Amino acid sequence: MDQQQQLEQLRTEIDATDGALVELLLRRRQLAADVGKVKRELGQPLYVPDREAKMLEDRRRQAAAVGLSPDLIEDVLRRVIRESYQQQQAADVHLQNKKIVVVGGAGALGQLFVRLFESAGASVQVLDKNDWQRAKEYLAGADLVLISVPIAVTEQVIVELPELPQHCILADVTSVKEGPLQAMLKQHKGPVVGLHPMFGPQQQTLAKQLIVVSHGRGQPHYQWLLDSIVRWGANLQEFDAEAHDQAMAFIQVMRHLSTFVYGVHLARERADLEQLLELSSPIYRLELMMVGRLFAQNAELYADIILSQPQNFAMMRRYLQRFDTVLGELEQGNKAAFLEEFAEVAAYFGEFSTDFLNDSQRLLSLAGDTHKVR
C-alpha cells in the first residue's frame, strides 16, 4: 500500500469514527430528553450547577488519564450540554391554575415570558397600549401582572394600573429597579417583586441565564414565581434595588455608552470594516463584534438605559477625564506613568485578572473555530 492509499484508508476510518460520534450524540440527546421529562415530573430545575460541575470534572480526569486534552473534552461537552438544555426545555405544565397578564407582552422580552408562562400551562393575557381601555377587565382575577414595557414609561404604566386583586403579584422586568419597585409598592398593597433579566429576548432557554431579584413585599406569596424561573433553568441573584442600580451604572450604562461612542468613532473615521476583520485575531474580532452587535439591536432600548439614571453622567465625565489624562501622558511619551498606572490597576484586579484571562481564552478558541471568512 502506497502512502496515498494509506492516507485514504486513514481518512475512511476517521469518517467512520465521526459517524459513530454522531450516533453517540444522538443517543445522548435522547437520554437528555428523557431526563428532562423526569425532571418535569419531579418539579426539578432544568439547570443543576453542582451536577454539571461534577460531570465536567469527572470527564476532565478521565480525559487526562487516557492522554486526551481535558480542555478539549470540556469544550465539547459544554457545547453538547447546551444542546441538551434545549432538548429538556419542553412543555413543563405546572402553572395551569394561574392567570397571568403581561403588560407589554407584544414586545420582544414580553413575548419571551408569554411563551414561558404558556408552556407552563398558565392562562396568559397580553395587555398592550392599544388595549388599555380594557385593563380593568384583563386584570380581574390575575395571579400575576408582569410589567414589560420600555424603561421610559415603566413608572407611568405602573401608576395607571387599576386596582389589582390583593393576592396578585405585581412584578416588572425593567433594567432599572429602584424607581419601578417603589412605584409598584405604592400602587399595589399585595406582593411586589422587581426582576431584571440580564439577557436579551433572543434566548431559546433560560438555562444558566441570570435574573436579578429585588425583593419588595410578600415574598412567600411570590415564591411560586421565583420557583418557576429556577425551574426553567435561570440563576437568581438577590440584590437591593439601590445597589443593583449602582452596579448597572458600570455593567450597562458605561459599557453601552462606551461601545456606542466606539461605533460612532469608527463610522466617522470611515474605517474599513472588511479590512479590520481581515487583520483581526479572534480577540479583536470579538471586540469588533460586540460593537457591531449593539447597532443590530433596538436603539430606543439603549437610549432608555443610558438616559434612565442621569446621575451616572457625572461618573462618565470622570471616565472621560481619566481617558484624557492617560492620553496626555502618552502624548508626552511618559511611558513610566503608563506602567505605574498599569501596575496599580493590575493590583486592583488581583486574581480576577487570571480568571478573566482563562475564561476569555476559552471564548477565543471558540471564536477562532467559528470565524467565517467573508
TrEMBL record:
Q: Which UniProt keywords apply?
A: Amino-acid biosynthesis, Aromatic amino acid biosynthesis, Cytoplasm, Isomerase, NAD, Oxidoreductase, Tyrosine biosynthesis
Choose any GO biological process term that the UniProt entry carries and state it.
chorismate metabolic process
Q: Chorismate mutase domain location, by residue?
A: 1-92
Q: What is this protein called?
A: T-protein
Can you list the GO cellular component terms from the UniProt entry? cytoplasm
- In terms of domain of life, where is this protein from? Bacteria
Q: Which PANTHER family match?
A: PREPHENATE DEHYDROGENASE (PTHR21363), PREPHENATE DEHYDROGENASE [NADP(+)] (PTHR21363:SF0)
Q: Which gene encodes it?
A: tyrA
Drop me one GO molecular function for this one.
chorismate mutase activity
Q: Which parts of the sequence belong to the Prephenate/arogenate dehydrogenase domain? A: 98-360
InterPro entries, per database record: 6-PGluconate_DH-like_C_sf (IPR008927), Chor_mut/prephenate_DH_T (IPR008244), Chorismate_II_sf (IPR036263), CM_dom_sf (IPR036979), CM_II_prokaryot (IPR002701), CM_T (IPR011277), NAD(P)-bd_dom_sf (IPR036291), PDH_C (IPR046825)
Q: Where does it localize?
A: Cytoplasm
Name its pathway. Answer: Amino-acid biosynthesis; L-tyrosine biosynthesis; (4-hydroxyphenyl)pyruvate from prephenate (NAD(+) route): step 1/1; Metabolic intermediate biosynthesis; prephenate biosynthesis; prephenate from chorismate: step 1/1
Q: Where does it mainly reside?
A: cytoplasm
